[in-house]
Structure formats: C-alpha cells, structure tokens
C-alpha cells in the first residue's frame, strides 16, 4: 500500500513539455498587442518586425557578425532540410545520430537524397557515438543536444578547426541553453517553440561564410523545391536574411518570439539562460541520484542535457517486466501526473525507452521543479502499488 501522502505543494506551472515548451515567466497575451495583424509580411511594418527578430537573435544569441540569419518555414525540421538539400553532395557526408530526430537526418541523407558516400555514426539512447570517427574532410550533420535522449555533445572539440567539410548543426534544444561553438559550426538551426517557449511552425537558419560559399559554388543535381531555394543566379538571396521570408510567416508568432527575446535580455541575457537551465536540470539530477526507482537515461554526467532531462525507471520490479509491461507502467505513471495536473506532457518520446522527460530550459521556474519531485515519488509509489496488487 502506498504510504506516501499526496504532496501539498503543486508546481505553479505544470507545463513540462519538451516542445512547444512553457512560456517565459510573466508572459501574457497582452504582450503581443503590438503585432501588426492583418498586414502583409512584405509591408514595411511586417518586414520591420521580421528584421527586428533577426537583429535581436544576433544580439541575444551572440551570433558572429558575418553569419547570415533567416526566419524559415517548417520549424527546425524545415531549416535543417533546407540546408541538407541545398548544400550536401560535393563531399562525403557523415551523420551523427543517437536519438530520434538525428536519426531522421540519416533517413534524409541516405534514403532520400541517396548520397553515395554517406555514413551514419550511431549510438543507442543514453550515450554519444564515437566522435573520434568524425572526418574533417567530410560534411557533418548532427544535433548538438539530443531532445529525445537527454544526451548532448559536451563541446565542439570533436570538430576539427582545419575541416574542409561544412557542419550542419541541429541546435533546436540547445540554442539559448548551451554554449555553441560558433567557430566550428557552419549551419545552425533551431525553432521558436523550444528553449524560448515560442509558437510553432517557424525555424531559424543561421549560415557561416563557409556555408554561404558552399551555396554559391555548388548546385545540387536534384530538383529543388521553392521553399528550399536560397540562391539566385549563383548568389545567395540576401533579402531572405533581411526579413523577406520564403513563405508567409505569422506576424503574431513573430511578435511572440520578439517578446521572448526581450525577456531573455531583461533577465541578464544568454549567460543567465545557461545558468537557469543548469540549475533547473540539477534539481532532477540530484533527485535521481538519491531516488532508488529512477535513473538518468544519459549515462555520462558530462553529456547530460540541461534542457530535456530524460529519466528511466530502474526499480527491479518494473525492470523485470516485459518491454510492453515497462511501457505500460511508464504510461500509467505519466498519465497519473497529468491527471493530478502536476506534470503535463512529461512522457518520454515515443521512440525512446519508456520513462519520464521533463523540460528544464530557462523559461521553467526552479520552484516548479522543486515542487515536482515529491509528486514523482508519490506517483511512482501509487502505480507500483497497483502493479504489486495485480501480481
């Protein structure tokens, strides 16, 4: 019988989804009242808002001055695929994959683009692949932070400073939470709905001078959809990177993104965002270290994410269950947390090992995570009780 009392304190904001993530503290719909609704995104005011989004991105994210920044369609996925379909082909390609979304990039490179000299360097959930296999003379596609595994690269040291290939970095759950090695990255992508808690469907595409040189020196052999076209007459279409987006963006979502960037500036900027995510994640990692039924999916503390913290159930009674039983147990656990209104959308990703995934990016409040951990213990004890009675 569960002897744990139901905790008295609830998280004030129980939205722990890994995307779209929770809005920043103090967010309210009235913050977006200045959005130029009903105006063309190509009007002076519309382009002005998009240009402001680009300029504030450069300032807050500390993007180098010679990199280009664009708002693009289809979220982070669209941004990554624009880069891959436009730039890959002239050199060998390596894709590093250790979680669900980076495995999608393997499918793009090997199965869809069918590049002849392509290699996937993979690892199971919880660990990084062997990064010593990265070839400086090949193009590289990788995720900086594994959103569905809770495993990140610790730094950019595995990328050679003398590389001849370009690097395409999916940074959607790392940007604004983890320092990015801009000197090692040629394409950086992310979406508004991750660390900043923005609205979905818009992506950011950031290109180094080396990426621009690739675009202007190489023309893919395959047909290029309009949404992916970034060049005209052999030159990069600079207007895309000045607020003239390829498709029609939402100016309401753009206003929301601007609001999030202003909030980051108001709390101390990028360094404070790093610190907030670190402090938030540490609450869960410290709790897991002393909790007998839970463990970290990420095995090496040096590679543990400070945004999407992935936890696995290690209680012997649950581990002894068949795979379907373990998945059912994890589902009952997260369903109970949602029913109680203390952790919404906290289930592990559908392709990942069954467990709990809690978003800890900078928009999350530390006090909400501190309030959550007693509920995790209570929910586990409650579901485990049911399991023992059924047995």
What does this structure look like?
Strand 5 (145-146) and strand 6 (151-152) form a beta hairpin. Helices cover 35% and strands 15% of the residues. The two termini are 13 Å apart. The model has no long low-confidence stretch (mean pLDDT 97). It is built from 9 helices and 14 strands. It has 391 residues and is α/β, with parallel strands linked by helices. It has a 7-stranded mixed β-sheet with strand order 1-9-8-7-4-2-3, with helices on both faces. The chain has a 3-stranded antiparallel β-sheet with strand order 12-13-14. The chain folds into 2 domains: 37-265, Aspartate Aminotransferase, domain 2 (3-Layer(aba) Sandwich), CATH 3.40.640; 269-390, Aspartate Aminotransferase, domain 1.
Please render the helix and strand layout as text.
Elements: H1 44-61, E1 68-73, H2 75-87, E2 93-97, H3 100-112, E3 118-122, E4 139-143, E5 145-146, E6 151-152, E7 167-170, E8 187-191, E9 202-207, H4 209-217, E10 231-232, E11 235-236, H5 251-267, H6 270-289, E12 294-296, E13 308-313, H7 316-319, H8 323-339, E14 355-359, H9 366-390
Parallel strand pairs: 2-3, 2-4, 4-7, 7-8
Antiparallel strand pairs: 1-9, 5-6, 8-9, 10-11, 12-13, 13-14
